Amino acid sequence: MTEPTDAPRAPITYAAAGVDTEAGDRAVELMKEAVRATHTSGVVGGVGGFAGLVDVSALKDYRRPLLATSTDGVGTKVAIAQAMDVHHTIGHDLVGMVVDDIVVVGARPLLMTDYIATGKVVPERVADIVRGIAEACAVVGTPLLGGETAEHPGLLGEHEYDVAGAATGVVEADAVLGAGRVRAGDVVVAMAASGLHSNGYSLVRRVVDVAGWALDRHVPELGRTLGEELLEPTRLYTPACLDLVDDPAIDVHAFSHVTGGGLAANLARVLPRGLVADVDRASWVVPPIFDLVRTLGQVPWEDLQGTLNLGVGMVAVVDPAGVDATLAAVTARGVDAWVLGTVSTDDGAPGPDASAIRGTKGVDGGAVRLTGAYRTA
């Protein structure tokens, strides 16, 4: 054990160790109005408590309420936000990754919490991140009930941070959506993505880095800079999905949030064994950013479709009688929608290009066959 020295030295404080509690307090002051704006009438108490409280008396009216929960982050997309010093959009990505997973089972979100870890608390930067989260929570009608900002000097760089979130929702037990409801003859409806969303950025960043493209480079086919395109916030689908659930003219059987793994892998998770969804690649035009990544990095289509959403952010599997109503309801929310394909009995055939996807993400479920060729602008 090293003996302490008798040499005079300055006292070591928490601030000298790299943690500025006053900066944390300033960040809370800057963000609290945005957080408070998400609070519904069911929220009990204000900002700053040890725990957030929400009144769930309404659950007494449920016959058998089930709580749904999800947690996620934004991944390496935060590296783009940090490089561009733009932090007010990343919160939309976080809410999209978390709350839109809850609505997949038909649940209505009750609350969300967030966690930000950073090497140094810069109050304005932290407030921008939280304001983005709060704005997105307001869009999906979910109170931002609590959060934490942690300063980790020595673990993260001064300008580095990561974000994570968790949300809880509720659904009636006999209204849970998923593979158990899907049947042959159902129609698969796509909801357009706003861009890359928040998955596959390790691939995208690698492509950009090898190509030597700067984030401030203007890209004509995108109509803006590369960085602006890469920071496009994740589209929020909860309002549109709940519209479909509430519409008596529509019988929704399942939703699939197209995140890591791409369209086929995520759609297969909500199909039962014995059924297959045939998805027509030619039913939509792949947005320019995806084709740019493909051509710039010479990325094979197979790898691209297994990593990125390629323009489809959410999928609804519905009874055929409600297809027109589904398309109209989603479009009314300002989201493009179209028919992707149909569900049928799985004959075990791999499809014309041997692209059948089965048994994804640990789910022993149905299959997805991708047919046709992708169309690009």
Automatic annotation (TrEMBL):
Residues 67-171 form the PurM-like N-terminal domain. Its main location: cytoplasm. Coiled coil: none annotated. GO terms for cellular component: cytosol. It catalyses: 2-formamido-N(1)-(5-O-phospho-beta-D-ribosyl)acetamidine + ATP = 5-amino-1-(5-phospho-beta-D-ribosyl)imidazole + ADP + phosphate + H(+). InterPro entries: PurM-like_C_dom (IPR010918), PurM-like_C_sf (IPR036676), PurM-like_N (IPR016188), PurM-like_N_sf (IPR036921), PurM_cligase (IPR004733). It is an enzyme of class 6 (ligase). Residues 183-347 form the PurM-like C-terminal domain. Its EC number is 6.3.3.1. The keyword Phosphoprotein does not apply. Pathway: Purine metabolism; IMP biosynthesis via de novo pathway; 5-amino-1-(5-phospho-D-ribosyl)imidazole from N(2)-formyl-N(1)-(5-phospho-D-ribosyl)glycinamide: step 2/2. Keywords: ATP-binding, Cytoplasm, Ligase, Nucleotide-binding, Purine biosynthesis. NCBIfam families: purM (TIGR00878). Belongs to the AIR synthase family. This is Phosphoribosylformylglycinamidine cyclo-ligase. It comes from Georgenia subflava.
